[in-house]
Amino acid sequence: MGSLMNDITAKPDKAPLASELIADLIELLEVERLDRDLYRGRRKKGGVGRVFGGQVIAQALMAASLSIEDEKAMHSLHAYFMRPGDENLPIIFRVERDFDGGSFANRRVIAMQNGKPILNLTSSFQRKEEGLSHMAPMPQVPPPDNLTSLLELAQKYEDVLPPDARDFMKRPSAIELRPVTALPFLPGEKRDPANQCWFRAVAPVRDDPRLHRVMLAHASDMVLLSTSLLPHGINWVTHKIQTASLDHALWFHEDVRIDDWLLYVTDSPWAGHARGFNRGSIYTREGKLIASVAQEGLIRIRN
């Protein structure tokens, strides 16, 4: 459910403006209130096939946050994918207010289509306070200004890409990716299961901390699962594999701006039994660790 190839959309007649891409993404993630603690998530414009897992996570997190009635900010989420989402249908989100305390609040969200759950998400919110502080340092990598975007790389290598993958990768996106190391679509030698990628929203996003965190949750599902493929020299473009997110966990350490460059540092310490486990650390350009991610995904080789 979390594979980017599940997010294929119809080819637009003309390239949209960056501001239009951001407006569309914000509209997608701002769920519609139907009743108290009951929300409806919009369909992605032009979306076909399965819903991108990051979209469901972000919409569920937005629904959970709308039930928080004080200044507590989201600091973690844990989600399980159960069924693939259908792009032809909206998603209904039911929020359960499991706990409201002085410092913390917990919410449980069930995302449903056709009366069946497709995702369960729990999230925690905390009132801001100070405490002991340390963080792992950001690795030394080239700055994003010196790197090529994924869209430009797709144009450069379009002659070696399958038509479906080429069309998908050349589609304008609200989130720009600039790989630091491994290109996610070229066959290559087996390599260590570690990767880095810069990303950011392609246009400014209004000053709403909740929205920036929800958009980060959406983006956190984009380049994670492919890390567990690197030791095997395969990828989702050049090989017949079935991939999908099984679960997803995200911890917000600091406030974030999704419209400034962020570095996604990922590694995969284990894979087996048709599953791959992946971890991620997200840093600002200045080297501050703002979020951590963990995910296990399905990996099946198809003949």
Entry summary:
The protein is an alpha+beta fold and 303 residues long. The chain is 17% helix and 35% strand.
Keywords:
303 residues; 12-stranded antiparallel sheet; 5 helices; 17% helix; disordered N terminus
Topology record:
Elements: H1 18-29, E1 32-35, E2 38-41, H2 53-65, E3 73-81, E4 91-100, E5 104-113, E6 116-126, H3 150-156, H4 163-169, E7 175-179, E8 194-201, H5 209-219, E9 241-252, E10 262-272, E11 275-284, E12 289-301
Antiparallel strand pairs: 1-2, 2-4, 3-6, 3-9, 4-5, 5-6, 7-8, 8-10, 9-12, 10-11, 11-12
Helix pairs in contact: 2-5
Characterize the structure shown.
This protein is of the alpha+beta class and 303 residues long. Helix content is 17%, strand content 35%. It has a twelve-stranded antiparallel sheet, with helices on one face. Helix 2 runs antiparallel to helix 5 (209-219). The radius of gyration is 18 Å and the shape is globular.
Radius of gyration: 18 Å
What's the oligomerization state?
single chain
* Overall average residue pLDDT: 91
Q: How can the largest sheet be summarized?
A: 12 strands, antiparallel
